Amino acid sequence: MKIGVIGTGNMGTILSEALIDGNAITPSEVIVVNRTKAKAEMLKHKYEEIIVADSISEVVKNANLIFLCVKPNEFYSLIQENQQFFKKDQCLVSITSPIQTTWLEKVLPCSCVRIIPSITNRALAGVTLFTFGKLRNQKWQNQLLDMFSHISVPIQIKEEITRISSDIVSCGPAFFSYITRRFIEAAVTETLIDRDTATKLAEEMLIGLGELLNKGFYSLPTLEEKVCVKGGITGEGIKVLEKELDGVFEKVLQATHAKFNEEVEILKKNFTV
Hints:
Blueprint: E1 3-6, H1 10-21, E2 30-33, H2 37-46, E3 51-52, H3 56-62, E4 65-68, H4 75-82, E5 91-94, H5 101-107, E6 111-116, E7 127-132, H6 138-148, E8 153-156, H7 162-190, H8 195-214, H9 220-227, H10 233-244, H11 248-271
Parallel strand pairs: 1-2, 1-4, 2-3, 4-5, 5-6, 7-8
Antiparallel strand pairs: 6-7
């Protein structure tokens, strides 16, 4: 089987590396293309058997499974320019949340799937979110779920919870990295600890927290309960968080949903004309 990757930016590269390192696919199966060819060549430097194509049409003509890893506003024109090269027995995978599988099915003859990855997949961990088109092909469904089980926990979701699921799985690592970075900055500003030490302690804490959850020792509520002794120092910190964070995450979700809805309204005009 030939696997095409159109777009080797951040997520296209992360996805390719994760699937190869997770032994879900082999480098010799992969054909990639990118607007800036040097970015595609970087993948080939790491995995010599990867083929770097000269054009998008070359990828579409030669791949059975195609991952479209470009910006949402580039989807329609890219598909229109290469529509004639898609075949019924192929499968196109979109990795962006605003593009709906039903839109893709209206303009393409092949199976269409949306898979929303996470940067955590690069560590062969975390979740990938699956939405299969109405014209799903069972062979592709089984094959993709098996492929992504090598690098993640594949979870099928309904269209109506796409945004919030992506907020948690895909945006979550950035949100919590930002919070941790702010925590480190406060530690450096308010105490005598240096930045390198604070960063090392915070990173190791997060790794340990993940291991506790992964091994099932605690759930999030029980973990908080175990650490937060009544009347203790942690409890005083929690009181501040409860007061200052009131409504913050609701506002975060309102902002991401507003931006998502705005993108959907713009994009669907092309696909539904």
